[in-house]
């Protein structure tokens, strides 16, 4: 277990931060991001610990640190330094200590409403100005006060500060819900988990102006880091579960289907039932469920088919591996079958020996789980599935992967691969980037690793600029539909244009549609756009990583010429022939 795995030891992180940073900087494949932290109170240690959590996620931050308690001035009246820094992310660290218009018992209701309006207007204008820097903006909401003049009635009367901060938080939440690239770091929730007496150490506030207890800084920064890694496509995609004493109590092979513990008739069954309900809800936000259990498959499936109290059913799982093979082998096979990386999987098992084997043999994340009452907390608090964007494609992900399983079964029945592709009756929609699809385009770009030639990442504001600048860019997104269903937007392309040359800056494709000639259809479209614009040459690069090895010879396979090669980059060029013939012969093109 890593020191950064939840639940982590905050004091250990604080005490060993220099050593931990040195070790984390040795990680391969770190991506650099520019992060501005703007201060409503002291932020020095917040920057230090945030750096550790980001490095642990594979993100190497370059920081801009605002002046003490000058967050508003730094944003609204920038002297040019923030703009010149060109932040990818702006984190505004404000707390209830920064609220300037708190109500008084002597205020009229109208006076309180005026104060609340002024308070929200100030923060809203600050957030909107921060977004103008082209960065993703993260801002705290506000924790409750540590004392209540009205006691319990503080949550009810307009003059109560609890009531006031609750309403302010709701106004900020509404703004976030309707504003792209703006996210709330929910310190109202974090402070509730910690307890207000633990969240704010008044001595630290009076002495050092830390508006949070120092030992709670890891919790705060972990939460911020989760938002950043999610926006960069570093979330987990799948839960793989054991069955016996994990999804139900008891051993179904020994106790029989009626002997396992599930349902709400006894306390022991309630915890397993609630855990299954939690997993069921995860499927609603696009998380894939799979089973890996040492069991007889027919007997194991009875735990869902014959125990109707179980919230989950067989159809909720993509892969169901119940056999006597080692679990690490089964898990590796599950990842291959659904075509995702092992590092996108979370394995849940009550057996510490099985957890240890998987943890030490695969890149799978394996949280420590103890009693079933703690299962939900162990997964939920770890932030594996932190949501910063949720698209229609996310909602349909489970169905898409089930369709892929059907495609794999059908492929096995064909001798000729081209005949198989033709049998799919594929239709593609390919067009230039548009604001209607910007959220899914940004998400796909930032989470795709296998079919990604340059590993470049783009923020939503950068994509918006490309949409606006049609003269200097060629862009393309593509959807693929076949007889099994709609795969959604699964490929994106960006090339910068100068004179008669286009340079491919980015080309990504979801692994679930790779090698279905979709890449050829996309390339044909790009060629057509180049010909329309009089472009005769296309330049490209391949930057090898541990994950995109499948692309090492791709450009040569479609006619590019290798110009130069080093350990870190291969450069190519392609001259568009006058008699270019489309490479795609199996996918029908749909008019857009």
Percentage beta strand: 15-25%
Structural class: alpha/beta
- Shape annotation: globular
Q: Please give the number of β-strands.
A: 18
Separation, N- and C-terminal Cα atoms: 50 Å
The level of helicity is 25-40%
Radius of gyration: 26 Å
Mean pLDDT: 93
> Major sheet: size, sense and barrel closure?
9 strands, mixed
Show unreliable segments.
Answer: none
Structure annotation, total helices: 24
Feature tags:
18 strands; alpha/beta; 592 residues; 39% helix; 24 helices; nine-stranded mixed beta sheet; five-stranded parallel beta sheet
Kindly describe this structure.
- This protein is an alpha/beta fold.
- The chain is built from 24 helices and 18 strands.
- Strands 10, 11, 12, 13, 14, 15, 16, 17 and 18 form a 9-stranded mixed sheet that branches.
- Strand 14, helix 23 and strand 15 form a beta-alpha-beta unit.
- Helix 2 packs parallel to helix 3 and helix 3 packs across helix 11.
- The two termini are about 50 Å apart.
- The mean pLDDT is about 95.
